[in-house]
Amino acid sequence: MRLLVTRPEEDAIELARVLAARGHEVVMAPVMSIRYLDAAELSERAWQALLVTSANGARALARHRQAAALKNVRVLAVGPASAQAMADAGFRWVEAADGDADALAALVCLELSPDGGPLLHVAGSVVAGDLKAVLEVQGFEVERVVLYEAVPVAALPSPAVRVIAEGRIDGVLLYSPRTARLFLSLVHNAGLESELAAITAYCLSPAVAEALGDVAVLTVKIAERPEQNAMLALIES
To answer: 3-class DSSP state for residue 139?
Structure first.
């Protein structure tokens, strides 16, 4: 199949490689770009654990000037991709939840104690759900630090516009509610809404599908679990 990948370039490169190895043709169409906030300060505290809710958060922390002092702190990541990014960056004690913020909160409550010390949540400027609030209700002290911004692009890349206009895209991969909304907006701005009838939207979760609203012409499919392997299985089902 010919698939549109809407993730930021940093996330899309490996995904494109995996899809190509499975025989799919990939058209890159990132709807956001990542801007790292390297000047952000990390409090120097006796952290019980670091909470990472995206691979971009992992990369942002890995490049930060204060990262070396945190390499031995326990890391709980939202899913396998975030966990792998932390491990690749040299963090030594990394565990992965099952792919979404609720699963990460459950893992924190299972593995950590409110009395064990504060938690540092590495986040973007826009977060899906409020992990900090959920954990604070359970008695944890959580400090959130914003280390990156996902900035919407002004328009779809011209190669993506061309293949959509020509009806040569089979599916689009959508990994977050915000990505889904931005994709629809960019398609609308390009005057290509009628072409959505030929496209299947492969969504990481029900929340992503819900963000598409009532676009009747778009075929929507949802992964069984909010993780990349489930997305790949969905595409090939």
So the answer is: coil
Single pTM value for the model: 0.82
- Residue 26: enclosing H or E segment and its boundaries? strand 25-28
pLDDT in tens, the chain (237 residues): 999 999 998 889 889 999 999 999 999 999 999 999 999 999 999 999 999 998 899 999 999 999 999 999 999 999 888 999 999 999 999 999 988 888 999 999 999 999 999 999 999 987 766 899 999 999 999 999 999 999 999 999 999 999 999 999 999 999 999 999 999 999 999 999 999 998 999 999 999 999 998 886 789 999 998 888 899 999 998
> 35-151 architecture in CATH?
3-Layer(aba) Sandwich (3.40)
CB 107 within 8 A of CB 97: yes
Considering the segment(s) 2-31+153-235 as one domain, its CATH architecture is: 3-Layer(aba) Sandwich (3.40)
Tell me how far CA of residue 31 lies from CA of 12, 49, 101, 121, in angstroms: 11, 32, 22, 25
